[in-house]
Design brief:
Blueprint: E1 6-9, E2 16-19, H1 27-44, E3 48-52, H2 62-76, E4 83-87, H3 96-104
Parallel strand pairs: 2-3, 3-4
Antiparallel strand pairs: 1-2
Helix pairs in contact: 1-2, 2-3
Length: 105
């Protein structure tokens, strides 16, 4: 089965990126992506992530987003020092809560 995203590094390998989501952004996709980011980031010693979700939206519930920020990331082993940025469609508010809880976590 084809992945609903592409993952890689910036040309100078200063950050990781994911783009071209073809399906709604779910908690399951976020968990899978986080695991891949962790493996690639540790291998390359990169801790910045740019996630492009233009053309789709997060469909996770508030509870799923909270659990991802506090529980899932800890279980996956994502370092708290990592930084994330999202590129989203103008007016897309589906990520506001996850951005807040990830910052607070």
């Amino acid at each position: 089965m084809k992945k609903p995203y592409e993952i890689g590094t910036s040309p100078k390998r200063t950050y990781l990126y994911a783009r071209s989501f073809q399906t709604p952004f779910t908690a399951e996709i976020a968990q899978t992506l986080a695991r891949e980011f962790l493996l690639l980031g540790e291998d390359l010693d990169v801790s910045g992530c740019l996630i492009d979700i233009r053309g789709t939206r997060s469909v996770s519930s508030v509870v799923e987003k909270y659990n991802f920020a506090y529980k899932d990331t800890a279980e996956i082993g994502l370092p708290r020092r990592w930084r994330y940025a999202f590129i989203k469609d103008h007016g897309d508010k589906s990520l506001e809560f996850i951005e807040l809880v990830m910052t607070n976590a």
